[in-house]
Structure formats: structure tokens, C-alpha cells
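Complex 347.
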Amino acid sequence: MIKTVEFTQEGYVRLIDQRLLPTEEVFLECRDYIQLAEAIKNMTVRGAPAIGVSAAGGIALGARAVDTQDMGIFQKRFEEVCNVIASTRPTAVNLFWAVDRMKKAAKNPALKSVAEMKAALRREADAVLAEDLLINEKMGKNGAGFISEGDTILTHCNAGALATAGHFGTALGVIKAAHLEGKNIKVFADETRPFLQGARLTAWEMKKEGIDVTLITDNMAGYFMNKGFIQKVIVGADRIASNGDAANKIGTYSVAVLAKTHNIPFYVAAPISTIDFEIPNGDNIPIEERDTREVSHVGNRQLAPDGVKILNPAFDVTPNEYIEAIITEKGVAKKPFKESLEKLRNS
Ligand code: MRU
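Predicted structure with MRU bound:
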């Protein structure tokens, strides 16, 4: 089982360093919340649910280090810890969901001392991690029915165990569940320029699971759809607006448009914590701009001329009309998504 995020007995956050995969399996132990915040920023840990779980662990870690018995001073320092963690990456709403959840846990009026608050935050972080593993398994089961014997499924980026606390994943969790049901299926993984999560992470993860995987470059997707190689597309999401518009790794929108043209159903698999019920549509989703070096270089090798203008939006938004269904741990939402997502939220 792939363990992406773990909390050690001392409360440290242990992460598989995703920057080094697939050639090196190295773990990084974050011993304070600043180190954990840096690990989210620099993509040691990435993927919306994994960011949320790590954030919860980082906040518990940061709270534990606050050296005071005064509840007021503790709350102030705790707020600072939350702000640092929340400022790491803007798009994945799971980060803010986790921060809010930890804040709520600290506000419980039953907590009568700083020690009690610290213990409650520890328990909450443990619960966030344990729930993530269960949620992904449920999501997998809820989505596996969409996959038929003999399907080849295209996926973009990495929405697997590495993008969650571990084990199953979201989009890849659906694929793994279908595989475990004994269906004979194949996966096509987009390499996912510029950070290559598909080539480095999805290909690695599928091979580890013994699932037949073929790596293609992003610009080959249309060719293979047109030739009849692909029957389904499944991706994850970083934030889904209340109307079903879904932000995911840059290039997902292009895949969705191609899928529609070729009459290939396009599914999004994501936990309820990825749905931002506060925003009406995808125009309200903040899109992270990342370092231009991710585009100008591959590793240490420079590809582009010095000084050339570069843009690097890390995500795009797929409008809801391109999405056949949104698979969650609570069930499957179909159009109109506003109503069906709301229903799942309250179920
Ligand atoms: O920039 P990343 O690697 O954090 O982006 C990750 C993605 O876009 C994933 O597809 C998304 O978080 C879904 S993860 C289950």
C-alpha cells in the first residue's frame, strides 16, 4: 500500500517526496509546521486531498509547539499557524476545508485548557487522515460501475494514492476498484506537462498496482480518441463549484473538449471536501500561477531561450456541460449538478 501522508507517534508529518518519484522512493519527515508548509508549496506533497490531510497534520504539529498555558495567547498563535498553512497553494479547496475543520475543532467550548486543545487538534488531524482513506475506497466503489470490461480509460495528472493520504486515490481509485472487481481494463496516462505528474506519478502508481498502463504525451490524446483507443476519461479535481464546473490540472479542459467531440464520457471523481458550495461557478475559482521555470526547464535542462515570455497557470476549469457525472464518496451526481451535488451534501 502506498502511504503518501502519515503521522508519526511524535506527531511529525511523514511524506513520500513526490518530486523524486519515480526513480527514488524517499520519505521526508516534517518536524514543524513551517517545514510542512514548504513541502506543500514545493510539491513534495501535492494533489488536493493529500494537501488537505497534510495541512491538518501540520496544524496539529504547529499547535503542539505553542509554548503557553494561556488560552487567549494560544488561540492567537494557532491562528498564525493556520494562516501560514492556508497561504501555501490557492486552488485546491481541500486545503481550506482542512484549515476550517481544524479551526472548528479548536473552538469547541468543552475544551478547558491549552493541553486539551492540543489533544483535540491531534485527534482531529488523525480523523481527517483516517476518513480520507475510507472516503477514497467508497468513491472507488461508487464509480467502478461506470467502467466496463475491456475499457481503456484516459486520465490526466495524478489523482491516485499519491494525491490522497494513500492506498486508493480518487480517479485512480475508481480504476483500481474496477480492476479489483476483475475487469480487464487499460489506462492511458497523459504525461501532464509541465510538472509531469502523469509520467512520473500515475505511470509509477499504475505499474505498482499491476494495472496495464500506457504513457502518452498530452498532445496525443486526440489522436488516440479519434482512433477509437479510449472509451472513458476519468480525472480528479482540485475545486468543484456548486454548479459542477471543475478545476483540475492544466490540460484537463482540453481533454474534456476532445472527449465530447469523440462522444467519450468524461467523469470527475472527487470527495465532497473538494466541492466549494460557496461559489456559484468556475469563474470564481482562483487559479495558481506557478514558477515559469517549470515550463522553461525539464529538471535542470533548459528548453527555452533565456528571457522568453512564459505563462504557467497550474489549473484550468472544465465547464459542467462537459462532465457526464461527478463521483463522490456519498454517491454520484448527474446534471443538473447544482441540485444533485446539494442533495449529496445533505445525504
Ligand atoms: O498541482 P497538483 O499536482 O497538486 O495538481 C493535482 C491535480 O490536479 C489532481 O488531479 C487533483 O488534485 C485531484 S487529486 C485526487
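The pocket of MRU is lined by residues 46-49, 92, 157, 159, 163-164, 170, 197, 236-238, 248-249, 314 (CB under 6 Å).
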